Amino acid sequence: MHKRVSLALIGAWLLSTSAAAGAAIGLNLVPIAQSASALRVAISISGLGVGAAPSLAAYDLDLLFDAGHLAYVGTAFGDPALANQLDPFDLGSNPATAALAGAGRLNLFELSFDTTADLDALQAASFTLAVVNFDVLANGSSELSLNVNALADANGDPLPANVASATITSVPLPSSFAAMAAGLGLLFRRRA
């Protein structure tokens, strides 16, 4: 009888730890607008608690990009639809900075002054941390990636996170237009 109870407890423990591992926090780079001359990329987080811990209170990230391909223009902190989730009462007292820390390295930092209870209760489970704007300098593919220097919950404890990178490809409008015009010219030439 004790052996069955022990096996049941071990099985329950294994299920609970695998469920916790499956509910990992994720950081993603999402291109949200792109043209031949400009790029907007959202840095988003997911996997936080819904009306409960864990919530995010601070982050220090480095966004790495090819400085020969992209030029940093500016950053807008907060979620475009949900507002700044690290400042749920919109008091504007949170320090947030975006600064180039070298060629192709943008450091993003934000710290919430809200209470643990407020962040846990009011913060969404998934939201955009910031939207970063770039000018496109060259055509082709370029990798964007994140380095996590620090990610902290509302108690100041570190949050582990899975980090995803993104590859963007820019094609200039004039070259695309010229290729399309040449293709249409060949099509009409064959019919004539």
Automatic annotation (TrEMBL):
Its keywords, alphabetically, are:
Signal
Give the residue range of the signal peptide. Answer: 1-23
Q: Which SUPFAM superfamilies match?
A: Carbohydrate-binding domain
Designated name of the protein: Cohesin domain-containing protein
Q: Which InterPro entries does this one have? A: CBM2/CBM3_carb-bd_dom_sf
Lineage here is: Bacteria, Pseudomonadati, Pseudomonadota, Gammaproteobacteria, Methylococcales
Question: What is the scientific name of the source organism?
Answer: Methylomonas aurea
